[in-house]
Structure formats: C-alpha cells, structure tokens
Amino acid sequence: MGNFAFIIHPIELEDVFRKLKFMRRWPAALVESAVSFLPPFKVSEISGVRSAKAETSGWFVSCPLTSRQMVSLPEEKVIKKIVNAGRVAEKLGARIVGLGAMTSVVGDAGITIAKNLSIAVTTGNSYTVATALQGTKKAAKAMGIDLDQADVLVVGATGSIGSVCARILAREVKFLTILARDKGKMDHLAARILRDSGLAVKVTADVKRAVQRADIVITVTGSAETIIDVNDLKPGAVVCDVARPRDVSRRAAKLRDDVLVIEGGVVEVPGDVDFGFDFGFPPKTSYACMAETMILALEDRFEPYSLGRELSVAKVDEISLLAEKHGFKLAGFRSFERALSDAEISTIQENARRRLVDNTCP
User: Fold this and answer.
1) Entry pTM
2) Is the distance from CB of 142 to CB of 304 less than 8 angstroms?
3) What is the widest separation between alpha-carbon atoms in the chain?
C-alpha cells in the first residue's frame, strides 16, 4: 500500500508521447484536443523510496492538460480536473498528494483543491525554494561570483515561490532586485523585506533591463511562455530557472555558451527508487516538489504543508532539515534535462571571460 501520490501533467506535447506513443503521428492540434478529454489516470507505481529512518511508496497520477491549456481554459474547469486527479490518488490509497508543475499554480495554489479532497495536499514549493537557493549559491561559487557583491534578481517575486526566495535571499545578499507585474504587490513585498531584514530592495517591472544588470537570476513566474530573452543575459551570469514551463528558452543552450542556466530543484532520492515512468530525469532523481511529498510521507506527516500564495520561511527551513535527515540532496547541476560536468562549467567560465574582454576592447 502506498502512502503518497504525485499529480503530473504534460508540460509540452513531447510529454504526452512518453506515455501515449501512438499519438506521435497525429497533428499537434488533434493531440492537444484529444488529451483534454481524457480523464485523470494512474501513470505508474513508485517504489524503493527508502532512507535510514523509513520507507514509502506511491503513484504518479496524470491530469491530462498541457501547460497552455492550464492557463487558457476556464479556471473552474482546470481545477475540477485537478481535483478529479486527486480523487484517483484517494482511490489508490494515498494519504498525501503533491501537485506538480502548473497544477500547483492554478487558482489559489492548492487551497481549493485541498478543500475538495479527503487527503492531505502539498504543492512541494517549500522544498523547491530550499533546493533552488542551495543550487544557485553552489552555481555562483562555481562561476566565481561573489554573493556579497552580486546583483541578484528574482523574477516572479510576488508569487508564492518568488516571494519567499526574495525574503530568504535578503538575509544573505546586499544587492537584490525584485520583478513582477503588480507594482502594488512588489511595493508591499519590498516593505516587508526592509522591515524583516533591513535590506532596501530595488523594484521593477522591466524584465529586459533588470536581466541585463543581473549577475544571478532566480526566475519562478509560472508563465506558460518563456519570458527571458537569452540575448539579454550578462556574460558569466547564473540563472536558476525554477519555473515549469521554463522562463528561459531552450535556445539558451545553443545561443549562449557563456552563461550557466541550471534547473532549480533537481534532487537525488534515497534508496533504490523506481518511478515506473520516464519523465526525462536520470534514474533516482526527481523535482524538489516531488521530493517534498516523499519526505512528508517518510515522516508520516499527512497534513497540508505548502499551500497558497504565502509560503513560510520556517517551513522552508524545516523541510530542508527533514530532507537532510532522510538523505535527499542536490543531484549536481542540470541544464535543459542534461547533466553538466565540471569541464563544461569551466568552459562556460572561459567563454564568459573571453566575451567580457571582447566587449571592453575599443
């Protein structure tokens, strides 16, 4: 009997083909239309999640809507389908269900979904924040960026993940810029950061100019479209793209060999885990949001954890300690579904140095 379930959905059509290979020959519009009529279903069983303290198992459950459909269809219809996916998890016997990708963004970030289910719900966002910040600091060190002197930018700063990222970063950096569309919410967040940490942050809605100045970018918008132009990135910059779908275009890997773009929240899972499904990661690794659901199951914490737009710094700290207790850890650097070697990072550094020299030559 499993203890947890995790709801996934096709971020892009290629994800549909991982499970429904026969659709690969269909026209894209037909595939998307057909997928939207599918009911939620069990994708696979997850076994072998085992730490020195406990073990657990669970299931992947699909909510068959693409990222574009998640934001373009009526919100009520999308939430109903996510709730139905949660009910599949209930019938399987799960005691807690995690919301993956856009299912954690729609509506009120899980609160309504939790009210309509009899099992605990979490978005996994607390551990996503923890691993994103851990990975960003590690990547900055690898690129020779001094965190004390770096210009740090949080894109999507008024969202649930972005807000708590900014509040935690304010304890550790001197130059922080927050970026979002709603100026009122940004001003409120800036005032809170000043009150809590004493740091006066910059506030902007100008993505282009802010990205051009930043040494470190953490981007977490939850948009269905990429919003950062790779040509605006500063040579040698580190970008931690926590968003799913991505905020940084896949073109970055081809067009900018002088910036380090990493995926936030890629985690090594303890034990001999078998997900029973290929979601594009190496064996025994997962997104941090998935890992949070597993950690809570290992702890027998079958309770609402990361829900709503207001994440708790205390919970980010707590889930970090629980992850360490059970042996969850960062799985190195990954960029666009591919592991990065130390040699590749050194090449990125050298390319950045060369480009900076070229740009300063008369």
Assistant:
1) 0.85
2) no
3) 68
